[in-house]
Amino acid sequence: RAFGINSSRESLGFLGKISQADPGGNREMISGEFLNGGVEARYLQRYTISETKEIKGAFLLGGRAYKGFTTSKQGMASDASDADFRFLNPNDLENSNFSFPSKNLAAFAENILFCKKFTFNFGMRYEYLLSSAEGFYKRYSIHPLNMDTLGIYTTYDSNRVERSLPLFGAGMSYKINAASTIYTNFTQNYRAVNFTDIRVTNPNVVVDTLINDEHGFTAELGFRGFKNKLLVYDLALFTVFYGDKIGLAPKPGTALKERTNIGNALNLGVEAFVEIDLISIFKDSAKYSFNLFVNAAYIDARYVSSKEPNYVGKQVEYVSPLLVKSGVKFSSNKFTAQIQGSYNSEQYADASNSVVPTGDAVIGLIPSYLVFDFSSRYKLNSVFQVEAGVLNFTNQKYFTRRATAYPGPGILPSDGITVYGTLQIQLSVKRK
Fold it and tell me: Which residues, 6 or more positions from 49, have their beta carbon under 8 angstroms from its beta carbon?
């Protein structure tokens, strides 16, 4: 398969602190252009080892090539109120102008083996990554009293980072009986530094010049199964290790925030899913079902080591210790309706676990929230189907992120009550 994209995005507005009133005048604009493409090929071969076909498997081999080119420009635009996405000085931007060429080459292989009650899965991937950045940004020296510009300093920046690394993963499952299975998996993780990590548009946020990639692993041990149509369950213990976790923290000795490698973080958690058909408790019905489901997870995510001793033992940012999704679902031959509630406990936006928000609201506590959604589907016939629902029907006011750049800085409010409807038409052609 081949894929590609050619697109652009313009963001226009006042990008100052949320505590500062919009003074009017020229607005600030961020313009991005994205041009990338790639190809990927996969070969799959199924096979059997024993003559009785008790041992069989599948082997996958593939490769991927990708090339991308992104530009990011920031400068002043008009002082009007319309959507005028034009720079005032396109040849001499007031803030920054950067291009980000990138390349990625990958080869991967995976094998799954079915052996009576056991299933073994092993895979490996070799990655080559090239990330580049070239351009300039400007800094202004402002008089503290009359706010006159005392000087403009242009800094040219060029960076090129190449990486080559292997990644491995393996898994195994054992079928205890026809209705229950125990499983375990281990996978290496890797996250390269991206453009949003190294370029920010908030004057109160700086980037560590020594910032580097994240690495780590994910491991899990679980038990799942079912009991007729009555019960479905899945219980898992998991751990995620982040080496050189990238995050936001107050820069020591300054009033600035810094995006840097905070340290090594370890997430330990347990997740459980249970679904019960309440109708099946009393009678076996093929026409109707009324299911109660709960999906809950508890995660203890903390920094185990850091270049700043104060962060050791602190909770990892943007990780809710408790997540619960629960609801009821009614189904018949033609009609389905579901009500679901989602709860996220409070979480932090930075490694210092600050509770009180800063003036730009980039750092601070993210309160817990509970959101309810309703969805339904009715099948009119073999051709027409109608779907409708109401998201956040209790109109909860909450947020999940604190942005450092556009559309921030500050909190990003989530949507209120949202109503949607869909008419689906499915056509089929009979072949002779």
Answer: 55, 56, 57
Q: Which two three-digit tokens encode residue 363?
A: 């750092």
**Mean pLDDT in residue range 70-84:** 92
Contact yes or no for 161/128 (Cβ under 8 A): no
- What pTM did the predictor assign? 0.83
90 preceded by a cis bond (ω within 30 of 0):
no
- Which among 181, 256, 266 has a CA at the least distance from the CA of 219? 266
Q: Which two tokens stand for residue 331?
A: 């189904």
Q: DSSP letters along 148-211, please?
A: -EEEEEEEEEEEEEEEEEEEEEEEEEEEEETTEEEEEEEEEEEE---HHHH----TTEEE-TT-
| Phi-psi domain of 79 (left: phi exceeds 0; alpha: psi -120 through 50; beta: other) | alpha
Give the residue among 234, 328, 235, 324 at the shortest CA–CA distance from 278: 328
Both tokens of 108, joined, read 């991967």
pLDDT of residue 347: 96
State pLDDT tens for residues 157-183: 887 888 899 999 999 999 999 899 999
- Residue 46 — φ and ψ, nearest 5°? -90, 150
What's the CA gap between 201 and 405, in Å, rounded? Answer: 5
Mention every residue, 6+ apart, whose C-beta is less than 8 A from residue 268. 238, 239, 299, 300, 301
| H-helix or E-strand spanning residue 281 | helix 278-282
Distance CA 321, CA 366 (A): 12
Spatial distance between the Cα atoms of 14 and 25, rounded to a whole number of angstroms: 9
Torsion sign across C-alpha atoms 69, 160, 31, 75: negative
